[in-house]
Amino acid sequence: MNLAEILVYTDIRQLHQIANHYGCECNPHSKNDLITTLLANLRHRNTIQAQVEMLTSVEMHFLLQMLLDKRTLFTMEDLLAKANVALGAEGEKTAEEARLLIANSLKRGWLFPAKGKTGGQYQCPQDLREPYLQAWLKLCKGDGAAAAEPAVYRDEGTAMCDDLYQFLRFLGQEPIPLTADGGMYKRYQSQLFRFFSVAEEPLPPQKWRFGYGLHFDLYPDRFSLLYDYCYFQRWIEEAPGRLQISEKGREQLEEPFTDQVHHELVRFWLRLYKRAIPNLPMIVQLIPVMTGGGWIPQRWIADILLPWLKPFYYDEPVNILHNRILKMMVHLGLLKVGQREDGEWLYAHTPLCHTWLKAYNGFADSTILLK
Description:
This protein has 371 residues and is of the alpha+beta class.
């Protein structure tokens, strides 16, 4: 629902709270006057920009999670989860602070109790989402935010799906022996990777590498995700001492490639990595907002997003942003990447990113834990 519809059904006490917060001058005894005044104030571009400029990092983080979540209704549990993610990035995490974030959002007119709903459901006005996003973007943009298109760039498109089928065909020839650790021998990995569209090398021995999949400690990033997706779909089977394609995997090889396979692979990545990166649904949707229709430098992306990422054990925020998010979005065909003459990496979103993220809501999807 839009703001005008919501205000009609809002309790007059909340209308008074919002009016007091914004310093509105109106007849406090007339609900109609309150609604008219609030509509004029809350939707005004200057009001929105002023609100965004005075928010703390935690408050902005919480607001962005609401704005980018495509659900029309939130439970109190949904809102508390968002508040805890926002507070966690600052090293604070208390129930009282989380509830204060929600209370302030009600006072600012970002959240309203849903009409006719029981059990404490809330809604964010649809027509306020885009103006607040654009106000945040305007606040963030500086001289280094935009960049010219690089002379050469890489768009991997559906290459990851192509390599997924290459992997299944490779296993379809014969089972692959496994090491005592449960991984493919490196000579088999090297042989397989030669068929791939995007080159990777077998991993050297790793001491601290976990949290992003079943065999993340044994395989390089891109192949690890492909392997886990095939395992999750039960297209491959780990038998004692060997890896083999399953009957379901053979059936998949007979099926023609569809966009749905690609979309489900992207969805799997988000669900798998979300446990280690709770902010992933927000960040994956923010990056296309930041790129707009052009190219942006990695340095600017890092300046904006790193404060909202926290370490995951051994994995520092810089590595999470570069290798777990940006690099994987390129591999999945969501971003294209190029390099300037000065060595700065540049990113732009792809048509797939625009269409897929428009329909998909990562906030509502559960995480996947393979081990």
